[in-house]
Amino acid sequence: MIRPAALLVSTLLAACAPAPETTRAVPMHLALPAMQTFGPSAPGPLRRSNATIARDFLDLHFALESGRTLPRLTRFEGPVTLRLVGAPPHLAGEADLLTRRLRDEADVDIRLDTAGDRTITVQILPGHVVRRIVPTAACFVAPRASSWAEYEAGRRAGTTDWAALAERRHVVVFIPSDLPPQEQRDCLHEEVAQALGPLNDLWHLADSVFNDDNFHAVLTSFDMLVLRMTYAPELRSGMSREVAAAALPRILARLNPRGGSVDLTNPATDTRWSALMAAALGPGQARVRRERAVRAAEEARRFPDTRRAFALYVYGRLSLSVDGSAALAAFLQAGEIYARADLPVQSAHVAVQMAAFALSAGRPRTAIAIARQHRPAADAAQNASVLASLGLIEAEALKLLGRTAEAEALRVDSLGWARYGFGSGTALAARVAEIRGLAPR
């Protein structure tokens, strides 16, 4: 289940820009370039010990995001077909790329099918319909259904309980039609992956879409390995956690021979910390959400990984409009943690904030340097919203330096990515206006 992007994507530093500029809208008659799209992805190397991978595999498969435990492993026991219902053209292309990756990287026997029986159905519905059932999620997946009508009937009858499954036969994914193209693609990746395998999210997974931080947009090397393990011949539906655990060392020795055997170092996330982060990311008073993020950052000091960095990042976003100095300090700390951990995707998200601070402070050269350093990571991660934001900030900085031809070329290119990341309506107009308003006039 993916959270709405409004809660998680980088919010720019509009609060520090001159007021008349931040309220300026982009003319809706502005001629936009063609929407940019990504091709096949090239996931980076896997940097994990097999012992850690095995633990995470079990935690992902034998619990739901709510914390409820699952008694058995379930998967599809045969070829999988994926069918799109009501999908826009761009999503059909994304589905083709995804199924190719699943076959090549995860060894899942899956294909697109426009007719006939289907095991996974992806249905595009009006946003208000989806949010009526799950208001805190951008999209979600459910078992024992192949349509919205079947899902609603099953929900009333109590047959859509993952814990009651013995084997997966029919699963449906619901994606709102009013999401930007990138968010629809992100939903496709994570929800189809959950339809095939893991149903849980883990906060400490810095290299996975199975993490509520939503930093990764498309399935990673780790995610593909988890799915490859899920469909290994040594496993089958109905296995208990203990039986599955006994099979994992042999599976990983074959699939990830460089993983070796390393002691586990990252403790699991307790329910208290998860609740603090859920409150910080959820609806409610901004003051209360900031307090929860601060508490989560303090409590995360006991974790030897990047959970503290994410709490600081969330606190920084929530503080932008009320305390710019506190927000900047939080982003600096988060950026340092992510840099030490060599996490370029997370660093690119923080870089949007840092470049925005530099631009609003009248330091265009610093803004350009930050944007240029981190745009390649956003491109490699196929995150158009971050890529476009960094490009538009750099374009404004170039304009301040009088390099208007460079600025215009980069602005046009970035608008193409912005159409993919934010859509072509008011969200895009608001983002462009927000970034224009950062530059001193």
Automatic annotation (TrEMBL):
It comes from the Bacteria. Keywords: Signal. Pfam families: DUF2927. Residues 1-19 form the signal peptide. InterPro entries: DUF2927. PROSITE patterns: PROKAR_LIPOPROTEIN. This is DUF2927 family protein. It comes from Hasllibacter halocynthiae.
